[in-house]
Amino acid sequence: MRTSGVVMPIFSLPSDFGIGTLGRDACDFIDFLASADVHVWEIMPICHTDSSFSPHNALCARAGNPLLIDLQPFVDQGVFSSRELSRMDWGRDRAKISYSKVAAAKYKALEMVFDALGFLSDSSFDRFREDNQDWLEDYALFAAIYEQFQYLPLPLWGDGVARRSHAELDRLRIRLDRRIRFYEYLQYLFYGQWGQLRRYAAQKGVRLMGSMTFELPETSVELWTDPAANDVSFRDAFADRWKQRLAWSRRLYDITKVYRRVDEEEVFAFYEPTWVTADDFCETLLQIGRASAGDLAAAGRYTHAFQKGFGERAAARHLPHWYDRTAIAYVGTCSDDTIRGWIKTLDKATAQDVNEYIGTALPRDQAWSVLRTMWLSQAAIVLSPVQDFLELGSSSRLSGFENPADNWTWRLRRGSLTNRLAQRIARMNRLFDRGGRQ
To answer: pTM of whole model > 0.90?
Structure first.
C-alpha cells in the first residue's frame, strides 16, 4: 500500500451554524478528497467531550459528539426552519468556533428535535437502544448527571454518585428520566448520520481514520464504571478491555489511531485488521502503556513527524530519507504548528537545515516543498493537515496555542478547497504513486 491522507477534524468543516457537522459539508469534503486522489481522511476523535471541548477529553469513548449532528434533516422534516436556526447565536467569527455559543444553540435546537420526535413510536430507536445497551444506559445517565452538576469533574459529584451508590443512582434515574432519554436519542441521531457518512466515503474510495486516546480521562463513563480502566498491570484484563474498544472502533473507522503522550513525548499506534491481529496490537499497546517518556519513541518506531526531525530535540528517524515501507508519516502532529508558522519560529541554523533539506528558502514554496519531500518518501501513508495544502500560518493551527481556549477552534472557510487545489494534490499523488484506490 502506498497512499496519502489529509488531517481534517469534522468540527472544523465549513458550516452556517458555527461548527462542522456530519451533513452536506462533510460529503463535500469527501468529494474534494476523491477529486484530489486522496484516499485517507483522518477526522480526529468524534467523541462527546467534556466542557473543555478538547476531542481528547471524552466523556465516553463510544458516545458521538452531539455538536456534530447535522440539523438540515430536521429542517426538511419541519421541526424548525432555516430562518429559525439562523436567528440563534452561533458566534460571529467565521474563522473560529465559539464553543459556548455553539453548544447553547445546538442543544436548544436538539431539544426541539427531541420534543418533536423523541417520543414518537420508532422501532429503529428502540433497536438502537437494545443493540447498544452495554454502554448507552451508563453513558446517558452519566451525561445527565454531568449536566446536573454543571459540568464539574467527577470527584466533585459527592461520594454517593462518584462511587455509584445504588440508592443514589436509582434516585437520579427517576429524577433525570427525561434527560437520560434525551442523551440516548442524541446518540441515535448521531450514529444514524455517521453511518450515512461512512457509506458515502466508502463509495468515493475514501477510508476514514479515527483516533482515540490511550488513557481515558478521569471524568469519563469508563472510569466511573471501572476505576481500573486505565490499568496496565494485568495483561489479560488490559487485553480484554482493549479488544472491546477495538471492536467498537471497527464499527466506526477503517483505520484506528491510538494516541499516548507523556511529558513532551508522544506516540501513535495504528490498527487495521489486515495489517495486524487484535492480539498483537494489544501487545503493542501494552508496551506503549508501560513505556516511560524516553521509551515511547522505540514503542512507536513506525510513526514519524517531519517537524520533529529538526531542532534541539531532533530525532533522525523523523526525516523522510529514513522512512521505510511500513511507516505512517505526518508533517506534524495535531499540537504542532502549520509548516509556514513552524518555519518562522526556527532559529537561523535550523531554518537553514530545513531549507537545504527541502531544496528552497523561498517562503512561497516552502509548504509545498515539505509536502513534496514527504510524498516522495517510502512511507506507506503520508498525511498532512489541510492547512498546509492551503499554506496557512500559525493562527490556523489546531492546538498548541498559549491560550488553551484557542485550541480546537479553527474553521475552514467555505470556498477554500478549489478545483485547482484538488488538481495540484492529485498531480502530486500520481507523480509519486500515491493515487488510485488502495
So the answer is: yes
